[in-house]
Amino acid sequence: MNNVKTSFSIRDMENLSGIKAHTIRIWEKRYNLFSPERTDTNIRTYNLESLQKLLNVTLLYNNGYKISKIAKLGNEKIPVLVNEIISEKSEKSHALNSLKLSMLNFDQALFLRTYNELMEGKSFTQIFNEVFIPLLNELGLLWQTNTISPAHEHFISNLIKQKIYIHTEQLQFEAPTNKDEVYVLFLPENEIHELGLLYINYQLALKGYKTIYLGQTMPIESLEDLLKYYSNIRFVSYFTVSPTKDEIENYFERFREVLKKSAGSKLYVLGHQIQEIGEEQLLGSIKIFKNINQLIDSL
């Protein structure tokens, strides 16, 4: 069974390219850039080749090329020109487009080629911040608008996770150099979104800290055992969907009871669910961070 998405609505094209549907229709009618098919109810649909062409046209357009000139190039010359003008400025856009296509086609080979090309000139930290984070931010919108399915999101997220695992493992062969604190990374119960936490684990290892990665859906009670082995723990957690905003205050109260058993230990929290909490509301042993870079920069 072929699960590759091969038919796209004009709204899908808009969501994936960032070009308004109205503009796409103008380009289509005035310059014959695309040849959509029609459903039985006369609704435009576009194939994968049209999407790829639109992404290339968008990159050229955003680099100062007039649409009239692009239209005269023809289907074969457009990708050639794209490759010629790819620079540091446009590399990010080109990489994002390639990663979107790899996701839509479930094409692991394209993902790996794109990633390896990026690695030739960037560090993993740069790739994550400049390419993966913008891509992941876009995935939320694409999923909400039904442009992609959860299968697409899981596919690309797991490929990114694989890269985090590989780079983290390379660092873990070396003994920690910052031994004053131990970082214990976990997700609360019913929380499974761990990509951000995995990346934090990588950054902590990169800075020479000892980390203990516990992963998904950890009960608070299970974390108490760590206090028997280490006296200066920095617990790090990421609240994406759980606990809910109504449950957070109670969760923090329960965690404070755990932290009372170790005067030097603290809880650091990030994620969507804590964005509305002000730092002044959490004094003492619990500290919130608005994003990953804020946490990393504070170390």
TrEMBL record:
Residues 7-76 form the HTH merR-type domain. InterPro entries: Cbl-bd_cap (IPR003759), Cobalamin-bd_sf (IPR036724), DNA-bd_dom_put_sf (IPR009061), MerR-type_HTH_dom (IPR000551), Meth_synthase_dom (IPR036594). PROSITE patterns: HTH_MERR_2 (PS50937). GO terms for molecular function: cobalamin binding; DNA binding; metal ion binding. One of its GO terms (biological process) is regulation of DNA-templated transcription. This is MerR family transcriptional regulator. It comes from Flagellimonas oceani.
